[in-house]
Specification:
135 residues, mainly alpha, two-stranded antiparallel sheet, 6 helices, 2 strands, 51% helix
Length: 135
């Protein structure tokens, strides 16, 4: 499983907003994070829809976090961009089990355990800690 470039850009954009308390325009975010503006605008829209960032219109418009950095974690960003995180399709859709066991399978149970650990790890990394260099 790899994070897409979109998720990487989105994580960088949120970290930039975390490090700057004022409203930043998309061009500034893009320049600071080396993020192409065409990707950034799409990502900021998804992050806005997820309630992570807020957009402001007008001459002094731009973007700002809509939550406190401690309330935002990596899992939230990835899911805002990619959708639900699952290391195997049977974890989110039991009907895709090739053996038709509907989750009653040792492989499913093992992958579910790994999935829980991955989710917990991503949820434990918040942007306040990233801003402060904890990671």
């Amino acid at each position: 499983m790899n994070l897409t470039q979109e998720s990487d850009y989105a994580i960088r954009a949120v970290l930039i907003l975390t490090q700057n308390s004022e409203i930043l325009d998309a061009n500034s975010i893009g320049e600071i994070g080396s993020i192409p503006i065409r990707f950034l605008l799409k990502l900021l829209g998804k992050l806005g829809k997820a309630g992570i960032v807020k957009s402001f219109r007008g001459v002094n418009g731009g973007y700002k976090l809509n939550k406190q950095p401690k309330e935002i974690n990596l899992k939230m960003i990835i899911e805002a961009i990619e959708g639900n995180i699952a290391i195997n399709r049977c974890l989110y859709d039991l009907t895709t089990c090739n053996r038709k066991l509907n989750g009653d399978c040792p492989v499913h149970r093992a992958l579910f355990s790994v999935q829980e650990k991955l989710n917990d790890a991503l949820e434990s990394i918040n942007f306040e800690d990233l801003k402060n260099g904890v990671w």
